[in-house]
Design brief:
- This protein is of the alpha+beta class and 239 residues long.
- Among the domains are: 19-87, Arc Repressor Mutant, subunit A, CATH 1.10.10.10; 101-191, Orthogonal Bundle (Arc Repressor Mutant, subunit A).
- 39% of the residues lie in helices and 10% in strands.
- It contains 9 helices and 5 strands, in the order αααββαβααββααα.
- The chain has helices at residues 16-32, 39-45, 52-62, 101-113, 118-125, 131-140, 162-167, 179-184, 205-220, and strands at 68-73, 76-81, 116-117, 143-148, 156-160.
- A hairpin with a 2-residue loop joins strand 1 and strand 2 (76-81).
- Helix 1 (16-32) crosses helix 3 (52-62).
Length: 239
């Protein structure tokens, strides 16, 4: 009886030296990138056979206790300063611009109700939207036009951008806090506030407080509700 030679299966275990080199390559790519990279971009620059998800998982583990961490933001990967060390960099950050309350409210409405038109924002806020409130969000890159609604006039609809996710450290819009979370942290009142009460002149100390609050509201809204202002055109800058 003739023996039939049997070929042993090739060892499919990856070469540790090759894996280590792939990790070094991915590490260099992520450090040099000015913007977060997705897995496809990393894979395109690595040699064939590189297991990108495994490589990223290894880098996450290796940098978990380091001064910088590898984090996933909006479906992409980026090295960032460890959260507990951010205070070391605060001295180098200058606050150059404070967003008005109107702009903050507008951003929140767009984030939670997108895609929305300018009229949608005005309906939810209950006041007309000044050009400045939307313009500052467009300039920051947090809000971008998403197209036009198929209604008379074809108004522009707006939504949040990838820059918004990166700035606030969100992997996706699903990570936005819900109503219950906002209530638990005290950022949202459990009961809606009542309508403002206008005190008459000579009402005493209470009247002065009401006038101060109205003045603050006027400053925050930057002239909104001005019947002389025309908000029919959305100011967009070419990008």
């Amino acid at each position: 009886m003739t023996a039939i030679p049997v070929t042993a299966p090739a060892d499919s275990t990856p070469d540790p030296a090759a894996v280590s080199e792939f990790v070094r390559m991915a590490e260099a790519l992520l450090f040099a990138a000015s913007e977060p990279l997705d897995e496809e971009s990393i894979s395109a620059r690595l040699p064939d056979g590189a297991d990108v998800p495994a490589i990223l998982a290894q880098l996450v583990a290796e940098y978990q206790s380091r001064g910088v961490n590898l984090v996933q933001v909006a479906g992409k990967w980026q090295f960032r300063t460890a959260a507990d060390l951010k205070h070391l960099l605060e001295r180098h950050i200058t606050q150059t611009r404070r967003m008005s309350r109107a702009a903050v409210e507008t951003l929140a409405i767009i984030a939670y109700h997108q895609p929305v038109t300018r009229a949608d924002v005005e309906d939810i806020r209950g006041v007309s939207l000044s050009a400045g409130s939307l313009e500052v969000l467009l300039e920051a890159g947090w809000v971008v036009p998403k197209g036009r609604r198929k209604t008379p006039g074809r108004p522009v609809v707006y939504g949040t951008s990838e820059t918004f996710l990166e700035h606030f450290g969100l992997e996706s819009m699903a990570d936005l806090p819900g109503i219950d979370e906002l209530k638990a942290t005290g950022l949202l009142q459990r009961e809606p506030p009542g309508p403002p009460v206008r005190e008459t002149a000579g009402a005493g100390q209470g009247g002065s407080s009401s006038e101060a609050e109205e003045a603050e509201e006027s400053d925050d809204d930057s002239g909104e509700n001005n019947p002389g202002r025309s908000d029919s055109v959305v100011p967009l800058k070419p990008r």
